[in-house]
Design brief:
- It is a single chain.
- This protein has 21 helices and 28 strands.
- It is of the alpha+beta class and about 700 residues long.
- Helix 4 runs antiparallel to helix 8.
Length: about 700
């Protein structure tokens, strides 16, 4: 009986002592504890234990590679343990967070709030009774300052049978799941040029909407430097800034962290051998960039809409839109002169409505084309010969109106009474439509990335970005309509307005001539001749409409319909032109682009410049005149043995459309630059300059 009572007393004492020994220890700025997945163990088995650290708010500890400064936690074995030091395994390190210390200068890697560092623990085969692990947790913990802290912690376990600890076992399993797994694909580090390229191929999750960050095990790269990601059909490529010019002696080891849009983070341990960048792992801009424990930065829909809005503002300065905006400018001067603020605001709203309706319709057509064909590009309307023929005639009619050969219902001199008429509102609305139709194909600054990124997004996102672009185009005139201070900057009306109105007719005639050249490239000289005949018919219809009597007016209407319908029908006649090359590339003594030709040239380590262009792209022509066809650039290309390839998108071409989609661009212009030895290109801005292009050669 006494023996039984003593045994019960001992059990009670040990039961009370065990949890006391395992209680958390306050090290100063962290509560530290040893935990295990078992409360009782078998002799000779290996279990999972862990160091649990609960940190004060805004304090952090470090990963296995602390980054630019810091030390990782470690366990120091004490002699009071009856488990040998060799039985303690290495920490299983969960994927880390970025810990910026000085933006752009000092970057550390580690953990905030809480971290559990699992490790394996081998139970001695001869263990019996209880076993005890006594260690010192040695760690550096930092906020604005760093403090070295120590915590004496112990783990006491019964030996006999395997009894799990459900709570601690679940915690340890959760943190083991946060550790990186082995990278399932291939990794290669290209150190042939600075910055280095970490090319990743054949692994899941390397999509453009993911944010990527590489955490090195050592210090071969600059820790605070950004790591821009580029994506391809087979993977992704990270740009890494080396810490020193010397390439590493062996493979580059570390952890790649992939953060999905929902915030889920996954880590992959990899070792990248040195070599060239894998094919099809670059070229597409990332939708998101960077990653950290708090989530990566997102280039989301609002950002794309902002860029589209800025691009729409810039469209007001593009040569393709200026002729149409000249009409609107005259209307605004006339409206401001009326002194009727309400009618002036109405003018601005109707113009904005015309622009927004047009861009919404354009977005709807693009979505429909994408659903039917799998791809859609901006400027598709100017690849349709009947549309181009009708646009050329509309420009011609507009020029005749500006010359004063007929009136649309209001005149420059009679501004006050007619401004409030329906014709005035209809005219403003029509001008907005015309500005959108002519301006939409112009891919200027800010628009290439925004429109390209949204082309594959859901329909609501496409509408948001296109409407933002339209609002940017309409905003200057909308502000003039509503801000009295800006209205006072407009000149006063006078006889000069009639002269200026007539002068603006000539840009419209030139625009019509340019559209005829596009039509010729699309449908041949016959379609151009029919369109010129249609213009003659329009002039005849105007002459007839001036005659008195109903028969003359009916005849004028019939002639007008025929003048538009005839050229459109002739341009639609199948002639085998769609998808065939034009003489555009040959005119500039360049070579036609194809993916196969690019592969051949890059295999020869020859630099390659590719011009994705079209006859109907005004921005493309501006870049040619100002940059690409200048003597300085041509001489620089010749001296550097640059292969100049032209991808002519004047007509529909599924191969070019696929390349635009691959590079996430909505349309032309697009310029690709392959430095000597590169297999993946750099995508250049939509607006070029001689210094920019020649600078590419100096940098390669």
């Amino acid at each position: 009986m006494i023996r039984i009572l003593c045994s019960l007393l001992a059990a009670i004492v040990l039961g009370a002592a065990a949890p006391a020994l395992a209680a958390p220890v306050d090290g100063g700025h962290a509560r530290v504890e040893l935990i295990a997945e078992r409360t009782s163990v078998l002799p000779g088995e290996t279990i999972q234990a862990a160091l649990e650290m609960d940190l004060d708010p805004d304090w952090h500890v470090y990963w296995r590679n602390a980054g630019d400064a810091g030390l990782p936690p470690k366990l120091v074995h004490r002699d009071t343990s009856n488990i040998p030091a060799g039985a303690i395994g290495d920490f299983i390190w969960p994927i880390p967070q970025l810990l910026p210390v000085v933006d752009g200068e000092i970057m550390d890697y580690g953990y905030r709030d809480q971290v559990i560092l699992p490790f394996s623990l081998m139970i001695p085969a001869a263990a019996s009774g209880t076993i005890r692990l006594d260690v010192v947790a040695d760690y550096l913990i930092c906020q604005d300052i760093c403090v070295p802290e120590y915590a004496d912690v112990s783990l006491v376990l019964d030996v006999g049978e395997a009894i799990p600890d459900p709570a601690h076992g679940t915690m340890i399993a959760d943190w083991i799941a946060r550790a990186p797994t082995i990278f399932a694909g291939e990794a290669r580090l290209d150190t042939s040029a600075t910055p280095w390229k970490l090319s990743l191929r054949g692994a899941p999750g390397l999509t453009r909407d993911a944010a990527l960050r590489f955490f090195p095990f050592a210090h071969e790269i600059s820790h605070p430097a950004g790591q821009p990601a580029s994506f391809g059909a087979d993977g992704a490529t990270l740009t890494l800034t080396p810490a020193s010019p010397a390439a590493p002696d062996g493979p580059l080891g570390g952890v790649l962290v992939v953060e999905q849009p929902d915030g889920t983070r996954t880590g992959y341990e990899l070792s990248a051998e040195q070599g060239t960048v894998f094919d099809n792992t670059a070229g597409l801009a990332a939708i998101r960039s960077g990653t950290s424990g708090a989530g990566g930065n997102t280039t989301g829909l609002l950002t794309l809409a902002f860029f589209a809005f800025i691009g729409g503002l810039v469209l007001n300065l593009m040569p393709c839109v200026l002729p149409v905006l000249s009409i609107k400018a005259m209307g605004m001067v006339s409206a401001a002169a009326s002194g009727h603020a309400k009618e002036l605001r109405s003018h601005g709203l109707w113009y904005t409505g015309g622009v927004l309706v047009s861009f919404a319709a354009l977005a709807a057509v693009i979505i429909a084309i994408r659903a039917a064909t799998g791809t859609a590009t901006l400027g598709f309307q100017l690849q349709n010969a009947p549309t181009v023929a009708i646009l050329a005639l509309i420009m011609f009619v507009t020029g005749l109106w500006l010359m004063g050969l007929f009136e649309l219902g209001s005149s420059i001199q009679n501004t006050g009474s007619n401004l409030a008429s329906r014709n005035g509102a209809a005219g403003a609305f029509f001008t907005g439509i015309l500005a959108a139709v002519v301006g939409a194909p112009c891919v200027g600054p800010f628009l290439g990335v925004a429109l390209g990124a949204v082309m594959t997004q859901p329909a609501p996102a496409v509408f948001v970005v296109f409407l933002a672009m339209g609002f940017g185009l309409a905003l200057p005139f909308l502000l003039l309509s509503f801000v009295p201070g800006l209205q006072r900057l407009l000149p006063k009306p006078g006889k000069w307005m009639e002269t200026l109105k007539q002068f603006f007719a000539f840009p419209m005639f030139l625009t019509a001539a340019w559209l005829l050249s596009v039509l010729g490239a699309l449908a041949g000289h016959g379609a151009v001749a029919w369109t010129v005949a249609g213009a003659t018919g329009i002039a005849f219809a105007i002459w007839l409409a001036r005659k008195r009597g109903t028969p003359a007016r009916v005849a004028a209407m019939l002639v007008l319909v025929a003048a538009f319908a005839g050229p459109a029908l002739r341009a639609a006649v199948p002639g085998g032109t769609e998808g065939t090359p034009t003489a555009y590339a040959a005119k500039y003594e360049t070579e036609a682009w194809s993916p196969e030709r690019v592969a051949e040239l890059t295999a020869e380590s020859r630099p390659v410049f590719v011009d994705f262009t079209a006859t109907w792209c005004a921005t493309c022509q501006l870049n040619k005149l100002s940059t690409l066809k200048t003597a300085a650039v041509q001489e620089a290309f010749a001296d550097a043995n640059v292969a100049f390839l032209v991808a002519d998108f004047t007509r529909k071409d599924p191969v070019i459309a696929a390349e635009l989609k691959l590079r996430e661009r909505a349309g032309v212009p697009m310029y690709l630059w392959y430095p000597a030895g590169a297999t993946e290109p750099d995508i250049l801005p939509e607006i070029l300059s001689k210094d920019l292009v020649i600078g590419l050669l100096d940098a390669s």
